[in-house]
Amino acid sequence: MKYLFFDIECACVYKNTAKICAFGYVLTDENFQVLAQEDILINPKGKFHLTGRNGGQGLVLPYEYEDFKKHPLFPAEYARIRALLEDKEHIVCGHATLNDVKYLNLETRRYKLPSFSFDFYDTQFFYMNLSQSYTRQYGLQAMAEDLGVEFTPHRAADDAYATMRVCEILCRRERTDLKGFAVRYGIRPGRLQNYTIRPQTSTGFLSYLQERDEQREAHAKAHEEFYRYVNKNMGRRRRGGALDGKVFCFSKDIEDDVTVSRKLIAAIFASGGRYTSHPTECNVYIARGEGGVRCQNAISAGAAFIPLDSLQHALESL
Hints:
Elements: E1 2-14, E2 17-28, E3 34-41, H1 74-86, E4 90-94, H2 97-110, E5 118-122, H3 123-131, H4 140-147, H5 156-173, H6 178-184, E6 187-188, E7 190-193, E8 196-198, E9 201-202, H7 203-233, E10 247-250, H8 252-256, H9 258-270, E11 274-275, E12 284-287, H10 293-300, E13 304-307, H11 311-317
Parallel strand pairs: 1-4, 4-5, 10-11, 10-12, 12-13
Antiparallel strand pairs: 1-2, 2-3, 5-7, 6-9, 7-8
């Protein structure tokens, strides 16, 4: 088997358009020895409208844009790219590969070409499984710097080479090869077939999704229980108490901690205070620690911030 690492650069990317201008690849043996490396330049048949990974303006590709007009359109390179990706002896891998697969899908539709059909792996997903961190998408440049790999960002063939080196380092750390790494972490490759993309998945990622969904469900139940208690008891609050005129708001984590939040609400209502779910409408904001958008919104609107551990004393002094 051989490893095919690839990367794609586009002149522009919109929701239903991705005009490819470069397909870079590195082909290696199973020991990561380079057998071939090439930047296939393509006339995107359109203007360059480039954005950064965060959607901001200013991404600059390390090419002379006028040179792309000298190269053939995507259909002329389609067969060569397809042969590389669909070779049964090639294990295909990229970085944030799902994006590049989407670009290929859009270009084949744009030119009414047959769909590509191949499985693919992703070094970004490998790294996420290795670190057991599924909430952050690691950029190739950040990963390369972390692992000591030098390259020229956004030159397709160089990105493909950096992806290969990152994969090599990850595999050597685990003392296995690419397929062995995938097996160890229960990674199922993604697949493109009949214009349909099946994303990658893994044992760890599925466990993360299950845990996340359980946490969301628990949050929803706690949220419902808390506000049911607030609405039920709001009309029973003491009029003219020490907290009359005070409008409280809690951080989300305190709201979700129903054992604590119900006791606080009972004490606030017993002294004539009120509660709001909107931080900009309160004049007293309670949290375990100062920080976060919700807290800042409350403080910006003029609310006093009181740490939870100081609340009992604060309630007595208000």
